[in-house]
Design a protein that fits this description.
Elements: H1 5-10, H2 13-22, H3 27-34, H4 42-60, H5 74-81, H6 88-111, H7 114-122, H8 128-136, H9 149-174, E1 188-190, E2 193-199, E3 208-213, E4 219-224, H10 225-258, H11 260-285, E5 299-304, E6 316-320, E7 326-330, H12 337-352, E8 370-374, H13 387-398, E9 406-410, H14 419-435, E10 439-444, H15 447-455, E11 459-467, E12 472-479, H16 487-493, H17 498-507, H18 510-598, H19 603-621, E13 627-628, E14 641-644, E15 649-653, E16 663-667, E17 670-674, E18 679-682, E19 707-709, H20 715-731, E20 736-740, H21 747-757, E21 762-767, E22 777-782
Parallel strand pairs: 7-10, 7-11, 8-9, 9-10, 19-20
Antiparallel strand pairs: 1-2, 2-4, 3-4, 5-6, 11-12, 13-18, 14-15, 14-18, 15-16, 16-17, 20-22, 21-22
Helix pairs in contact: 2-3, 2-11, 3-11, 4-11, 5-10, 5-11, 6-7, 6-8, 6-11, 8-10, 9-10, 14-15, 18-19, 18-20, 20-21
Length: 784
């Protein structure tokens, strides 16, 4: 991306680079962060934005990469290429980097997005070299005994000889015969040989080689004769061991040299990934998002926040419909005009450097080839340049370069000279940039420029908001209207004498005073309108909250109702299963009686068994305590025990009868409304005295027809009714029944047949034939 040096400093890009570098995990990643600049390649920007977006998704999922094992291995690789022998620590760092590359590759291939997977596919690692190094080198860079059988044997022999030497010398210095000759009973080293300190006067009493004499001449350091042979053996073993260690390091270095190019590529890609994840981490910290419109022309910022500002940051909203359009921002000093310029420019730089900028939903940022920024005071005493001259020289650099893919940011354009001439020059500059098709953002205090913007078809006014009541800026950008400088109001707040302020007001042009009055009134009306809109939105949100609460309560009640229906159905089903089992048992006993009768057993015995069965049937079938038919026009009391004949279930009256004469009855968790004629009342009731017990005929078909119509019911309601109907039809003795569910979407038909497939009373089922209703009905064949 083209830009002047002042653009980078004016938009705080070096600060972004340094903060990015602080989040990298490797030296190479840090170097890349400090050299990162926005790019002028559309494909590069699209790719890097995708990589950052994918890395941010992994960071949200707490995926962490093993950066601690990535080392700067470039110098080691270069030395290996030249045939050099690497130290153990260098080899271990190369193997660790290879291991990290292998693990990162696996993580990204398993969890990364398309762009990161492409990077992972290209990420190599050493195959043979990594395994060989970890087998031979310790984390501290030492060569392990396992590196070769010969090395292990040599080191074992060295340890044995050292132990032998230690024992010999220890016996020597502890020997009573040697004690008088020794200066002290210790073992020390001279010329890398183990010696004992002997009194100089007894030097010839201790056979051995003189290795050194103390500075005072009182002590001779003698290598005892018996130790010479052992130490010669140790020196020989050490030379062999060192030669073997060097051979191992040479072989491992050769393996690294063979794969040096691959590892150099791996190091480069790892540094790229480090930069990508650091960029993603920064993007997450400021809650960035990927803007749209990269290939479009509109430039719109929604809720953009400058990431380097501390404290509560007022977000920025602005829009330029396309190339050759501009925005002129006016308002008081310290009101946020320059911050608005720098925020807009920095959002573009971050976007084209692959960051997810801190913007809100709806933001669109097109692709720019250049960003030109003239912000701040550029007075240069050494070059004898005034602020005005420095600004002009910088703007001069932009004039031939700015075009349709350029963003131009001008702070206090035309300032630093005569206001009339400065305003005229500013108009000419603004018009030049707009004619060249640049996107333009500029700030000013000049009144003529505000009027110029009102007249120009592609230049709009905007104002930084100022609270008239508190005489303090709010830092909000208001599009579509010019702003006031509020110089006299600010001077009054700072305590200037009122007489001076009144005199200054009198010197002002009457037309400008009237314009300020109109602008103030306009700002007041806008603030009142915004306040009214805010109240309306708050009331609307409160209404939405109430509606949501009511909807949640309705859903809760629906769930509770469904739960109660399910519990009641389970309770009734359990009772019905018990009755079915008892019926089957009675039927079994009846068959046994008939069999005994056929075998000629006594008729009296048969009659006794029949009476016994009837007694058992009555005791089992009739509810306890006894229920009787109520008197005509009986008044049912709440809590009165009743028996619902059609349901064959006991319950209690739950309330007064309804307008249709139906009585509410609570049966376990289920409440039903039934006809009064369908009820038996508990014997002994004041309102309905018992008239005696009666037998219930399970095989009666009263009230149970050969078909059931489920049209208009939900699936849950239909299955509940179907369950009861099949139980009643079975008890009524039907062999086959018809279930009318209609065709419709087919959901109810599928649920009915799924239910029938696993029901213990249904032997089989089939769709109806054309005369029976086709696929709109299901015929159930009940078990015999």
């Amino acid at each position: 991306m083209a830009a002047t040096s002042r653009t980078w400093t004016g938009l705080d890009w070096p600060v972004i680079q340094e903060r990015l570098a602080q989040r990298t995990q490797t030296e190479g990643g840090r170097e890349r962060a400090l050299s990162l600049f926005p790019q002028g390649s559309l494909l590069w920007v699209e790719r890097e934005l995708s990589r950052t977006e994918e890395a941010a998704a992994l960071l949200r999922e707490r995926v962490r990469l093993p950066w601690s094992r990535v080392h700067p291995i470039g110098p080691f690789l270069e030395r290996a290429r030249r045939g050099g022998i690497l130290e153990g620590q260098a080899l271990y760092q190369i193997a660790q980097t290879s291991q990290a590359a292998r693990e990162i590759r696996g993580l990204l291939l398993a969890s990364g997005g398309p762009e990161l997977k492409d990077l992972a596919e290209a990420l190599p690692h050493m195959e043979e070299g990594e395994r060989a190094i970890f087998r031979a080198i310790s984390p501290e860079g030492e060569i392990l005994d396992e590196a070769s059988p010969l090395l292990a044997e040599l080191r074992r022999e060295e340890r044995q000889e050292e132990e032998r030497l230690r024992r010999f010398l220890d016996r020597l210095i502890r020997s009573p015969e040697m004690q008088p000759f020794l200066q002290e009973a210790v073992i020390t080293q001279r010329q890398r040989r183990f010696v004992v300190p002997v009194r100089a006067s007894y030097r010839h009493q201790v056979p051995g080689i003189l290795r050194d004499v103390s500075a005072s001449g009182q002590t001779a350091f003698v290598e005892p004769q018996g130790a010479v042979e052992i130490q010669e053996r140790l020196l020989l073993l050490a030379r062999k061991r060192e030669a073997e260690e060097k051979r191992i390091l040479r072989e491992l270095s050769h393996l690294v040299a063979k794969e040096a190019d691959l590892m150099a590529l791996a190091e480069d890609l790892l540094y790229q990934l480090d930069l990508i994840f650091a960029r993603a981490e920064m993007s997450l910290e400021w809650e960035g998002r990927r803007p749209g419109g990269l290939r479009g022309e509109a430039f719109r910022l929604c809720q953009a926040r400058h990431p380097l500002l501390e404290g509560e940051v007022v977000p920025l909203d602005l829009e330029l419909p396309g190339p050759g359009h501009g925005l002129l921002i006016t308002g008081p000093n310290t009101g946020g005009k320059t911050v608005a310029l720098k925020t807009a420019g920095l959002m573009v730089l971050l976007h084209q450097a692959g960051f997810l900028p801190p913007v809100g939903e709806g933001t669109v940022i097109p692709f720019f080839q250049a960003v030109f920024c003239d912000v701040g005071d550029e007075q240069d005493v050494q070059q004898n340049l005034s602020t005005f001259s420095a600004h002009l020289l910088h703007i001069k650099e932009m004039l031939p370069e700015a075009g349709r893919k350029s963003l131009v940011l001008l702070d206090e354009v035309g300032s630093g000279t005569d206001p009339e001439e400065g305003a005229a020059l500013a108009m000419a500059l603004l018009e030049h940039f707009l004619e060249r098709g640049a996107y333009l953002l500029a700030t000013t205090h000049y009144g003529p420029l505000k009027a110029f913007a009102e007249r120009h078809p592609r230049l709009k006014n905007a104002a930084v908001e100022f609270d008239v009541a508190t005489l303090a800026p709010t830092y909000r950008l208001i599009l579509g209207q010019p702003g006031r400088s509020y110089a006299l109001e600010i001077a009054r707040r700072l305590g200037l004498p009122e007489a001076i302020l009144e005199r200054a007001q009198a010197y002002r042009d009457p037309a400008e005073r009237r314009a300020d009055v109109l602008l103030t009134r306009l700002e007041t009306m806008r603030a009142e309108a915004e306040e009214a809109l805010l109240r309306a939105r708050e009331e609307e949100e409160a209404a939405r909250a109430v509606r949501r609460a009511l909807e949640e309560e309705r859903e809760r009640l629906e769930e509770e109702r469904a739960r109660l229906y399910r519990e009641a159905a389970e309770e009734v089903r359990g009772w019905q299963e018990k009755v079915k089992a008892e019926l089957l048992e009675l039927e079994k006993k009846g068959r046994l009686l008939l069999e005994s009768l056929r075998k000629g057993e006594g008729e009296e015995t048969f009659r006794q068994d029949i009476r016994k069965l009837r007694k058992e049937a009555g005791r089992e079938v009739l509810p306890q305590p006894a229920y009787v038919k109520p008197e005509k026009r009986a008044v049912f009391e709440v809590g009165q025990g009743v028996y619902v004949q059609s349901l064959r279930a006991a319950g209690e009256v739950a309330g007064p009868p309804g307008s249709d004469g139906k009585v509410p009855v609570q049966i376990g968790a289920l409440r039903v409304w039934v006809d009064a004629e369908d009820l038996l009342v508990q014997e002994g009731s004041k309102r309905a005295p018992a008239v005696g017990r009666r037998e219930v005929d399970y095989r009666s078909r009263a009230g149970v027809g050969p078909q059931l119509d489920l049209h208009g019911l939900t699936v849950d309601e239909a299955l509940l009714r179907l369950e009861k109907y099949v139980d009643d039809a079975y008890l009524a003795g039907y062999e086959e029944v018809k279930i009318l569910h209609g065709k419709g979407t087919g959901v109810l038909r599928q649920e009915v047949r799924r239910w029938a497939q696993g029901h213990p009373l249904v032997e089989s089922f089939r769709p109806g034939n054309p005369r029976e209703g086709g696929d709109g009905v299901t015929i159930l064949r009940l078990k015999g």
